[in-house]
Write a structure and sequence with these properties.
single chain, mainly alpha, Hypothetical protein af1432, 13 helices, globular
């Protein structure tokens, strides 16, 4: 048992080394738009790894599973590097499924081939499901890791978006908001989804305002109380709301979201 644990730790370290070498190799180049966006994704992956481990530890998972959650977080967007290098876009609907691409990349690496089969299946399920509208998984163990990754991913997406938001409400890196038009127009499909208490679908996003409402709607797909605690502590919802036009429909959406977040601490 102790030897297996040590082997897993070594493999996870090899995975971290692979990520560092791969990401740095991809970031090198003369196109500053590409290198800046790839650095953004590297930073995001490192933060999602940290948040995944943080959530797993809060759920009282054992050390091996906490480290597994961390390595999943680190690898979940490895496909983003070649995606952006080729298309200069993070829009999966217009380019390629970056989760599937991530799996294609890591499954060919030596560190992954040496991981225990039971953990390989967890990694494949969690990464494969992280960018889907809904999780397609019935295995209870796999599902837990899917939820951890999705929570960690969303938390850092929210935090990153706030960091790169300009005073005029646009983003200093347009790729973050999928290069959408910066217009104060809220698409009816987006409004309908969030008013119904649903995660907004990416295919319906037409403007930066739509994108920000999509960000707010992420609360409907957050799974764990510790994730809500982080969201609340960092005031992520409030910080996004403050960049929105104060129309009645926006104010009502914000109140609805705030009520959900407050109720989590009462009911969960």
């Amino acid at each position: 048992m102790e030897e297996t644990k040590k082997n897993n730790e070594n493999l996870f370290e090899l995975g971290k080394t692979f990520f560092e070498n791969y990401s740095q190799k991809m970031i090198q180049g003369e196109n500053s738009n590409v290198t800046d966006n790839l650095q953004l994704k590297k930073d995001h992956s490192i933060k999602v790894a940290s948040l995944s481990k943080y959530i797993a530890e809060n759920l009282d998972m054992n050390r091996e599973d906490c480290e597994l959650a961390e390595i999943i977080g680190l690898m979940h967007d490895i496909g983003r590097f070649s995606q952006f290098e080729k298309y200069e876009s993070f829009d999966d609907l217009k380019t390629v499924d970056h989760a599937a691409l991530s799996l294609d990349i890591i499954q060919n690496e030596e560190f992954f081939k040496k991981i225990q089969e039971k953990n390989k299946l967890v990694i494949i399920s969690a990464i494969g499901n992280h960018n889907k509208f809904a999780i397609n998984e019935t295995n209870e163990r796999y599902l837990k890791f899917c939820k951890i990754l999705r929570d960690a991913d969303k938390l850092d997406i929210l935090e990153t978006c706030i960091t790169y938001m300009k005073r005029d409400g646009s983003f200093s890196m347009p790729s973050i908001s999928l290069n959408l038009q910066n217009k104060p127009i809220l698409n009816d499909a987006v409004k309908k989804d969030i008013e119904m208490g649903k995660l907004v679908q990416r295919k319906d996003l037409k403007t930066v305002l739509d994108f920000k409402i999509f960000l707010l709607s992420m609360v409907y797909d957050i799974n764990y109380k510790i994730s809500f605690h982080y969201l609340n502590q960092k005031q992520l919802i409030k910080n996004i709301y403050e960049t929105l036009p104060k129309k009645d429909e926006i104010i009502n959406i914000y109140r609805q979201i705030r009520l959900l977040v407050e109720n989590v601490f009462v009911l969960k």
